[in-house]
Write a structure and sequence with these properties.
Oligomer: single chain
Distance between the termini: 81 Å
Radius of gyration: 31 Å
Strand content: under 5%
Largest sheet: none
Number of strands: 0
C-alpha cells in the first residue's frame, strides 16, 4: 500500500509538472500526458489504474489548465467514452468533468456535450446491449451520467438551460437505429423526472412528441391498411417498429409519473404539446394516444380537462382547421375512451347540439347547396352523431341521462335547410338514424339519405374536400402491437357497442351485425358493449 501511495504521489507531481511546463513552453511531459489520454481506450488494468490517477490529478489541478495551451489535452478528455472504461476510470473522468464544468475558464457546453454524448453507446456495442454484462454496463453509465449532471446543476444552476438546448439539438432523427433512439429518449425522460425536471420538462416531453409525430407521418396509410400491419406484422417497415417501441417507453414513463404523483405536471406539458403539434399534424395516427393514455390514468382531472380543452378550441379558436380538428378529436375521444363518464359525454353533447342550434338560428333559409361554406356546422353535426353511435345505448339506460337527451333539440338541426343528414358522412348518418329511430328519443325526418342505402352524395364529398372527415377519426383502433397492449384495455371497439335496434332482430341478423362489416367507417374496427365506470363529473356538468 505504501509503494502504491508513493507511485501515486509521484504520478501526481508528474501530471502537475507537465501542465505547468506546457505553460512555460516545455511540452515534453505534457505530450506524454496527452498521449496517455488519447490512447487510453483499450488500456490494460495497470494502465487503467494509471489513467484514473492521472484524471484525478488533473481534476485537482483544473486551476492550472489553460484552454489554449492545453487544448489537445481537453480534446482528449472530452472525447473519452464512459462505455469503454471500468468504474474506477468512469468515476475519475466524471469527477474531472464536474471540476471543469465549475471552472469558468472552460466552456460549460463542452462538459455538457461530453455527458450527453454518453446517452448512447458506441455503434459497435449496439448488438451486444441485450447481454447481461452490457445491461449492467448501461445502468452504471446512465446512473453516473445523471448523478454528475445533477451535481453540475447544483454547482452551476444555469447549466440546466444549456443542457436542455444541447439535448434537443443532439436528439437522434427518425433514421437512426432503434436502440439509439430509445436509449436517448430514456435519458431525456430521466432528466424530465429528475431534479432539473421543472426547468427541462416542457422541452424534453415536447421534443419526444415531435419525434413520435415524425415517425408517425413516415408510415403511409397504404401500409397501415395492409392486412399484415393490422395483424401486428410490420414487415420491413422500420418506422412502425421504432414508433411502437418509442410509444412503449413513453407510455410506461407516463404511468410511472402517475404512480409517483407527477402526472398533473406531465399532463400539463402533454396538453400544451397536443395543442401546438399533434392537433395540427396532418392526420396523425398514433402519437395522439399518448395524451389519450395519460387521460386514462386520471379521468376525473386529466380526462375531463382534455375534453374541455377540445371543446373550447372548437368554440373559440380563430383558425378553421384547428376547430375542425378539435371537434373531430372530441367526438373520437368521447366515443373511444372507456374511462370517460356518461356525465361528461352528455354535457359535451349538450354543448355541441346547442352550438349547432345557434348556428341554424342565424342561418334561416340557407340551404346545403354550398357545404364548404358551412364546414364547422357539418363538423359539429357529424361529431354529435358519431358520439351517439357509440354511447347512445349506455346513456338511455340511465333515466336522468335519457331525459337530458330527450331535451336536446336534435330534430330541429336535422330538419334545417342546411340538411346535415345529406351532407355528413353517410355511414355515420345511417348508423345514427338506426340508433335514434329505434329508441324514439329524438324526432328525426322520415325520409333521409339512409333510407336509400349507403350512398355518398356530391354534397358530402364537397363538405369533406381535401380534408375528408371520413378519413379522420383520430382515435381509431390502435394497430401498433407492443404499445397496443397498453391502449387496448382502455379503448372502446365497435364490437363492444350493441345498438338497441340489434336487440329487435333475430339471432342470425344480430350475429351478422356484430361482424367486421358492421363497422362505422372506422377501417376494421371491432367493438363490444362496455360497462359504465364510476367517474363522476363536476356538479356544473350535471345541471
Amino acid at each position: 500500500m505504501d509503494d502504491l501511495n508513493i507511485k501515486n504521489s509521484c504520478l501526481n507531481r508528474k501530471v502537475k509538472n507537465a501542465l505547468n511546463s506546457a505553460l512555460q513552453g516545455d511540452s515534453t511531459h505534457y505530450e506524454e500526458l496527452v498521449d496517455l489520454i488519447h490512447h487510453s481506450q483499450r488500456s490494460n488494468p495497470v494502465k487503467a489504474a494509471m489513467l484514473a490517477t492521472c484524471l484525478k490529478t488533473i481534476s485537482s489541478a483544473v486551476a492550472s489548465i489553460d484552454i489554449v495551451q492545453h487544448r489537445s489535452l481537453l480534446e482528449g478528455i472530452f472525447s473519452m467514452c464512459l462505455w469503454k472504461f471500468n468504474t474506477c476510470v468512469m468515476d475519475a473522468l466524471l469527477e474531472l468533468i464536474i471540476s471543469l464544468a465549475s471552472f469558468s475558464a472552460v466552456p460549460l457546453d463542452l462538459c455538457l456535450e461530453m455527458m450527453v454524448s454518453n446517452f448512447v453507446p458506441p455503434a459497435y456495442l449496439l448488438e451486444y446491449l441485450n447481454r447481461p454484462h452490457y445491461v449492467e454496463r448501461k445502468k452504471k453509465v446512465f446512473d453516473r451520467v445523471h448523478a454528475s449532471l445533477e451535481t453540475i446543476f447544483d454547482l452551476v444552476p444555469l447549466s440546466a438551460l444549456s443542457l436542455e438546448r444541447i439535448v434537443r439539438e443532439r436528439m437522434p432523427s427518425v433514421y437512426h437505429r432503434e436502440p439509439i433512439i430509445l436509449m436517448y429518449v430514456e435519458n431525456m425522460l430521466r432528466l424530465e423526472s429528475g431534479t432539473m425536471g421543472k426547468l427541462v420538462r416542457n422541452s424534453m416531453l415536447m421534443a419526444i412528441m415531435v419525434r413520435l409525430i415524425d415517425l408517425d407521418v413516415e408510415i403511409p396509410w397504404d401500409v397501415i391498411l395492409h392486412d399484415d400491419f393490422v395483424k401486428g406484422d410490420f414487415g420491413a417497415n422500420s418506422m412502425a417498429e421504432k414508433l411502437d417501441s418509442l410509444m412503449v417507453v413513453t407510455l410506461e414513463h407516463i404511468k410511472l409519473s402517475s404512480e409517483s404523483g407527477r402526472l398533473p405536471l406531465v399532463f400539463e406539458t402533454l396538453l400544451q404539446s397536443f395543442k401546438s403539434t399533434v392537433l395540427t399534424a396532418y392526420k396523425s395516427k398514433f402519437a395522439q394516444f399518448v395524451i389519450f393514455y395519460a387521460c386514462s390514468l386520471d379521468p376525473e382531472n386529466c380526462g375531463q380537462q382534455f375534453a374541455i380543452t377540445l371543446l373550447e378550441i372548437f368554440l373559440g379558436n380563430p383558425y378553421l382547421q384547428c376547430r375542425m380538428s378539435a371537434v373531430a378529436y372530441l367526438a373520437s375521444y368521447l366515443s373511444r375512451a372507456m374511462f370517460v363518464s356518461d356525465s361528461l359525454v352528455v354535457y359535451m353533447l349538450e354543448r355541441l347540439v346547442y352550438w349547432c342550434i345557434e348556428y341554424c338560428k342565424n342561418r334561416d333559409g340557407v340551404s346545403s347547396s354550398n357545404p364548404r361554406a358551412h364546414q364547422m356546422f357539418y363538423a359539429g353535426c357529424q361529431a354529435f352523431m358519431y358520439i351517439l353511435c357509440f354511447r347512445f345505448r349506455s346513456l338511455i339506460l340511465v333515466p336522468r341521462f335519457k331525459s337530458k337527451l330527450a331535451l336536446l333539440r336534435v330534430g330541429e338541426i336535422l330538419k334545417h335547410p342546411l340538411n346535415p343528414l345529406k351532407v355528413c358522412l353517410p355511414s355515420i348518418v345511417e348508423e345514427f338514424l338506426r340508433v335514434v329511430r329505434s329508441s324514439g328519443v329524438f324526432a328525426v325526418p322520415e325520409n333521409s339519405p339512409a333510407s336509400s342505402g349507403l350512398v355518398e352524395s356530391e354534397l358530402s364529398r364537397a363538405f369533406g374536400g381535401s380534408e375528408r372527415l371520413d378519413m379522420f377519426f383520430p382515435f381509431d383502433p390502435y394497430l401498433l402491437k407492443k404499445s397496443g397492449s397498453l391502449i387496448s384495455p382502455i379503448f372502446v371497439y365497435w364490437s363492444m357497442v350493441v345498438s338497441p335496434y340489434h336487440e329487435q332482430e333475430d339471432d342470425d341478423e344480430k350475429d351478422s351485425s356484430d361482424e367486421d362489416e358492421a363497422d362505422v367507417s372506422v377501417g376494421g374496427d371491432r367493438m363490444m358493449s362496455f360497462d359504465d365506470d364510476d367517474f363522476e363529473v363536476d356538479d356544473d356538468y350535471s345541471d
